[in-house]
Amino acid sequence: MKKQFHPLRLLAVGMACAALFFTACKKENTGSISQDTGKSATGAHVETVTKAGGMSVCYVEVNSNSLLNTGKYTLTTGGQQLFDIAIIFAANINYNTTTQKAVLYNNPNVSAVLTNKATQIVPLQNKGMKVLLSILGNHQGAGFCNFTSRTAAKAFAQQLSDTVAYYGLDGIDFDDEYADYGNNGTTQPNDSSFVMLVDELRKLMPTKIISFYYYGPAASRLSWGGKKVGDFVNYSWNAIYGSYSVPNVAGLTKAQLGPAAVDIQSTSQSTANSLATQTKNNGYGIYLWYNLTSTDKHVYFSGVSSILYGSNVTYTP
């Protein structure tokens, strides 16, 4: 099945790549999944959330929708959050043609979420949810797969780690799309780059989440030099909405993989339910949702939730 492209990903094209990434720095065994959140960014203690049936992960296009929508859905039985991980979609890996280096860039909408973390991110973390920042190519030739040295990969990893620390995020998600490798005189993908990048990022963020949206050149460049991406990332999920496909990431267990992916706005209820049944029956631990808007979708979510978690979903505006 052909991948359904995210409708707003192209909005960041052409934005200045030399902007400072902090201020200008754009996204598819079901045993108990325990999220020990410890303390939120405010320092307040957060109760550990344990939800049998695996995790639900949700991408939000923050160019047009509020990340806070992910916190409005709870299990009717037990009251736990439906979504365990909310992903800010998306920041960009841009290319500075002057320095010939990759730089992290946030468009104004992403920046607004990050700089207003007290009202946009912390409320979700206080509910026990994790908040990740997705990183996406931006047609400038820079991508996760064409770093030509460990020094260059480490420099970009440092930008990611600094951003996670500064904004109190829970981790980074990699989405290897729209890089347009070769633009601006950049090189084509190589076998070492992505492995080096996640290796360096894990060293900088030993306790944070690193996830991989299983798509693009990175999906076929997952091992190099005796190391593999699965040694360093926490999770990977299918990128083809409306389909069931197990990401081939060696080193990850079933609990860390999401073969089911749905577009909330276009995947039918019957398909979403079928994907949930396959996820549960085959023992996988993640179910991926994309494109949550402000529209109340608790009936749609209940179809899946009743299969995964044995509970309907309640919507609280």
From TrEMBL:
Name the source's superkingdom. Answer: Bacteria
Query: Cytoplasm: present as a keyword of the record?
Result: no
Q: Which GO terms describe its molecular function?
A: hydrolase activity, hydrolyzing O-glycosyl compounds
For this protein, the parts annotated as crossing the membrane are: none
The UniProt keywords, alphabetically, are:
Glycosidase, Hydrolase, Signal
- What are the GH18 domain coordinates in residue numbering? 54-311
Asked if the record carries the keyword Hydrolase, the reply is yes
Please list the coiled coil stretches: none
Q: Which residues form the signal peptide?
A: 1-18
One GO biological process term is: carbohydrate metabolic process
Q: Please give the family membership noted in the entry.
A: Belongs to the glycosyl hydrolase 18 family.
Q: What is this protein's record name?
A: Glycosyl hydrolases family 18
Which organism is the protein's source? Chitinophaga ginsengisegetis
